Amino acid sequence: MFVQGPYLGYRLLLVAILSCVLIFVDSRFDYLDKVRHALSSALTPMQWLSNLPRGVVDWVDEVTTSREQMREDVDAMRARTLVLERKAQKFAFIMAENGRLRELLNASGVVDETVIVAELIGVSPDPFKHYVMVNKGRADGITVGQAVLDSSGLIGQVVEVSELACRVLLISDNSHAVPVQVNRNGVRAIALGNGSFDFLELANVPDTADIKEGDLLVSSGLGGRFPPGYPVAEVISVQHDPGRPFAQVTAQPKAQLNRSRLVLIVAKQPDEKNHNGETQEQGISSEPEQGGEG
């Protein structure tokens, strides 16, 4: 039986002191990284189990779907398949044409990146931290710094890897920044997360920069963290204040940050793996890039 008394207060004080010491050691040194990774790997089955009820409900819904609904779904998928096949033929032509142009320019870059399909198994319980957990880890070749996409655009990047899972920091998090450029004219900027799934802000955009509502922002590839050309956001607001040297530019993420369930993790190319830590950190630097006129 648990007995309360003066020793209980001493125990609580001892636990509080020990917690403060561990927090200090964890923030200053990397001694606890292995322990954190081990705990993350041990908790992965619990995350899978917590996601099991939803999977069961989805399976029951699929089993109980009416025959008529299934027939409509099949017809819709056939129509969509035809459209996608037509687009694939067009893309195949464009990729072949790009390959010929690269050969003419003696370029050695790859036409496309290798991706790994992953599924979300958890989200951050803290409303002020925007990250998700996915079911691919070190055993699948995942490393810190890999870009993560959904079917619409850039979601974020891998910031922590355990053996069977990894943590992905979303582009909407307050601490995240991604180098972008306007797809229309190449004007460069930095897209900052502000804690909202629906909006990003462009940092220090000159008032004279050629950025308009409706412009598509794509990853510029600067810093070596995010591959160039992936959709990031669409400009929805540009405000000019005569008293300020910078315009206030707001953009809406293209990715479904709080709805996507399946994601793509972009595998690093060999030349990317040879970069040192300093180069990799440039991909999330908070130093804004001046958006010039080209």
Describe the model.
- With 294 residues, the protein is an alpha+beta fold.
- The protein has a domain at 115-294: Thrombin, subunit H, CATH 2.40.10.340.
- The protein contains five helices and twelve strands.
- The chain has helices spanning 6-28, 33-63, 67-104, 270-273, 277-281; strands spanning 115-123, 131-134, 147-149, 154-161, 166-170, 177-182, 188-193, 200-206, 216-219, 231-239, 246-253, 262-266.
- Strand 3 and strand 4 form a beta hairpin.
- The chain is globular.
- It starts with 5 loop residues before the first helix and ends in a 13-residue tail after the last helix.
Give a quick precis of the structure.
By secondary structure, the protein is an alpha+beta fold. The protein contains five helices and twelve strands. Strand 3 (147-149) and strand 4 form a beta hairpin.
Topology:
Blueprint: H1 6-28, H2 33-63, H3 67-104, E1 115-123, E2 131-134, E3 147-149, E4 154-161, E5 166-170, E6 177-182, E7 188-193, E8 200-206, E9 216-219, E10 231-239, E11 246-253, E12 262-266, H4 270-273, H5 277-281
Antiparallel strand pairs: 1-2, 1-12, 2-5, 3-4, 3-12, 4-5, 6-7, 6-9, 7-8, 8-11, 9-10, 10-11
